[in-house]
Amino acid sequence: AQTVSRDEGGELTVGGTPVTRLAEEFGTPAYILDETDFRARAQAWRTAFGDDADVFYAGKAFLSRAVVRWLHEEGLNLDVCSGGELATALSAGMPADRIAFHGNNKSVTEIRRAIEAGVGRIVLDSFQEIVRVAHIAQSLGRRQRVQIRVTVGVEAHTHEFIATAHEDQKFGIPLAGGQAAEAVRRALQLDGLELIGIHSHIGSQIFDMSGFEVAAHRVVGLLKEIRDEHGVELPEIDLGGGLGIAYTSDDDPREPHEIAKALTEIVTRECEGARLATPRISVEPGRAIVGPTAFTVYEVGTIKPLDGLRTYVSVDGGMSDNIRTALYDAEYSVSLVSRSSDAEPMLCRVVGKHCESGDIVVRDAFLPGDLAPGDLIAVPATGAYCRSMASNYNHVLRPPVVAVADGEARVIVRRETEDDLLRLDVG
Ligand code: LLP
User: Fold this and answer.
1) Does residue 121 sit in the same domain as residue 235?
2) PTM N6-(pyridoxal phosphate)lysine: at which residues (predicted)?
3) ipTM of this model?
4) Whose CA is nearest to atom 19 of ligand 1?
């Protein structure tokens, strides 16, 4: 569905608009997001699961009011994990009952606001939170629909910082030692809560479905235990997000319909084995929807060849608009997009403008040997966890997000200005 291609001159065009025109109009660096592609991916996830499941887009990957409206129009739900994300969702008109509220340390104020707004579910992450949410709901005269997030003890094959189902980390309540069963016991006793299901999120940027298989097996095991002990069959199971996307040509992601089929089959099979009615499934893809839909366009600045090593190509952004390379050793590709070139490729490292040697955008990349200051280069697959994790390090201004659809480009998140920076500085 992506509408990015090259014209005859070798220049990249998005939805028919040349990238140099976008750069002239909106400046660089900029995230260029293909709205048509975003909607198609959202829709593909929704239709893959059909009416028997719910797709919650994980807002942490990238959230703005335009995105909320697209999701609403495409029939998706939304997962938020902070008061700020909740406020964005509500201000753009997402119906509260289609919002799930996550987080390992939600504040009392956030919880109260979520319950007052009428969010569809709060995902409880600890024993303390079970009691806290129950009390707040009760004090507001509400019965809040909740799920309990459990850690199933799976080692997802991904970077340590984004794996979340092994036991030694901060999220969820371990299944081990009967802790999750105890959490369910407590939640069922509290009047302020309506326990609707169990939640598991095993990590992020995952290709291998076996982790989901183990997770589903263990969660269904818990559902069975709950049925046997309390005579209650919880109606829902959430398998989280985490489906990987292609950052480089080495990655081979699965299509939403394959994932939906695999997950549905696993849950159905496990439930049949346990003689349980199959619960309603929900999933929370973030990266898989928005990640591939955007690229970052940078202008090349200083080029520094280091003899026998590589050429350092500096761009006008860096770790402030993409922290993923520095933080997770993430791999990206890069290409020259403002023109074509037949020059011999040279080994480059694309680096930013920050005062730090770890400020690397693309660790190893080949770019044409005639690369020159003023050329535009683009890093694909920056839709997820780039703008949403952007910072003002070195007081660098965060880039805009420009959405392209039907040949039209419009800013959906504007570029930060020095006035924006100074507005917060009230000393
Ligand atoms: N659901 C829950 C409960 C999550 O914690 C996450 C991601 C998702 C869904 C969405 O996962 P996705 O489908 O986007 O992989 N900053 C890291 C990723 C952190 C993910 C945190 N949780 C990165 O840039 O790779």
Assistant:
1) yes
2) 60
3) 0.99
4) 162
